[in-house]
Write a structure and sequence with these properties.
By secondary structure, this protein is of the alpha+beta class. It has twelve helices and 13 strands. The strands form four sheets. The protein has a six-stranded antiparallel β-sheet, with helices on both faces. Strands 1-4-5 form a three-stranded mixed β-sheet. Helix 2 runs parallel beside helix 3.
């Protein structure tokens, strides 16, 4: 390969310029065809106007070329940079000639090693599909603004997203124009715009809990083998929304639309534990009917039970609503960090033993967490 030396011209408007500019991309097919012409210029048979030295052209030709440059016998009106590539042998005579050369005729000799250009990294989604960089960056800007309690300056925002200020400025200009970001006219700092809230409101209409939760409910049933339920809450009761029945002959069945008390069901206690105090108080203050010998009927006992549920992240109905039935339930949260429902698996106590309930709780919590994230929930604490 004719890749031993690169000559880069530093003088404009010379007859040699175009030949030198094309040198870096020049690759000869036969190094042995290089020779010195009568004016001591090294040329190639295929491209006679391009100066090049082949790694295999022989040390004699190489040294004569170095001598010619050093003595100023060729290209003495052109300042060049000679780059001797790693692996090329330069004889002592040639090194001496280079050392004594005229600075007007050459500027430097630099030994370099061949470099390998790293492959371009392609950004992909979690599913392996290519990402659109501009969209990715725009969403980073919006999410960073959403994470701030007040207005944010452009310099601070560029640090948050890891982009240059000029790039962030261009993204913000489009977002401001479309109404998704608002710029304070006095401080020039940025807030989320009203169009973001329009999108959020529209998302609520599309995120029907029953439709979104159905695949997760099916997963919970398949993993446990028991009937899986989806519920939401009214002021003092749970309301059953959906159910995926167990494949067992003996199984629990509750029709969608049925209601049950919050304080004595697994799903009811799971939601009650993560409700604000003002929502819990009416249940604590109301009389609690006893359905079985295990039903919690006292305020202090229920408060203690809710504290345990908050700590564990799940609740258990230990035959509190119906004798011989045990239920494991996990809460579901939305983007406002509110508990909007719960999922449960229930079955006879002969299959749903306390040991099995504890093991199932890990998977049940993981499935509920996935569903919550699908509804826009972002937790600061990993349960």
């Amino acid at each position: 390969m004719l890749d031993a030396l690169d000559f880069r011209t530093r003088v404009a408007n010379r007859p040699f310029d175009r030949a030198f500019e094309g040198l870096r991309d020049h690759r000869a097919s036969a190094a042995g065809s290089d020779h010195l012409d009568e004016r001591h210029r090294l040329v190639h048979a295929d491209q006679p106007h391009v100066a090049a030295i082949g790694a295999n052209a022989g040390s004699d030709a190489f040294e004569r070329r170095i001598d010619a440059v050093a003595q100023g016998r060729c290209f003495h009106h052109v300042h060049t940079t000679l780059t001797v590539r790693s692996g090329t042998t330069v004889s002592p005579a040639a090194q001496k000639a280079l050392g004594q050369g005229n600075e007007k005729d050459f500027r430097e000799v630099q030994t370099i090693k061949p470099t390998t250009v790293p492959p371009k990294v392609r950004r992909t989604t979690g599913a392996g599909r290519p990402k659109v960089q501009s969209v990715d960056r725009t969403l980073d800007v919006l999410e960073s603004l959403a994470s701030r309690r007040g207005a944010t300056g452009i310099s601070e925002l560029s640090q948050l997203v890891g982009l240059h200020v000029s790039t962030v400025h261009r993204l913000l200009a489009t977002l401001v124009d479309r109404g998704y970001v608002r710029q304070d006219p006095e401080s020039s700092r940025y807030h989320l715009g009203s169009r973001v809230f329009t999108l959020a409101s529209a998302a609520d209409l599309h995120l029907d809990l029953r439709l979104v939760a159905r695949p997760y409910l099916e997963r919970l049933m398949r993993h446990s083998g028991e009937t899986a339920n989806l519920v939401t809450a009214s002021e003092t009761e749970v309301v059953y929304l959906d159910q995926v029945a167990s494949m067992h002959l003996v199984k629990m069945f509750t029709a969608p639309g049925m209601r049950a008390p919050l304080y004595c069901t697994g799903t009811g206690k799971a939601m009650l534990a993560f409700k604000p105090r003002e929502a819990i108080e009416p249940v604590l203050a109301a009389p609690m009917r006893r359905y079985t010998s295990s039903t919690i009927t006292g305020r202090a006992a229920l408060e203690a039970e809710l504290g345990t549920i908050r700590k564990n992240g799940y609740s258990v109905d230990n035959e509190e609503m119906e004798e011989g039935v045990r239920c494991l339930a996990v809460p579901i949260f939305d983007r406002r960090r509110e508990c909007v429902g719960a999922m449960s698996v229930s079955g006879p106590t002969t299959r749903m033993t306390t040991e099995r309930v504890e093991k199932l709780s890990v998977t049940a919590r993981a499935i509920a967490d996935e569903l919550s994230r699908q509804l826009g929930f972002e937790s600061d604490v990993v349960r």
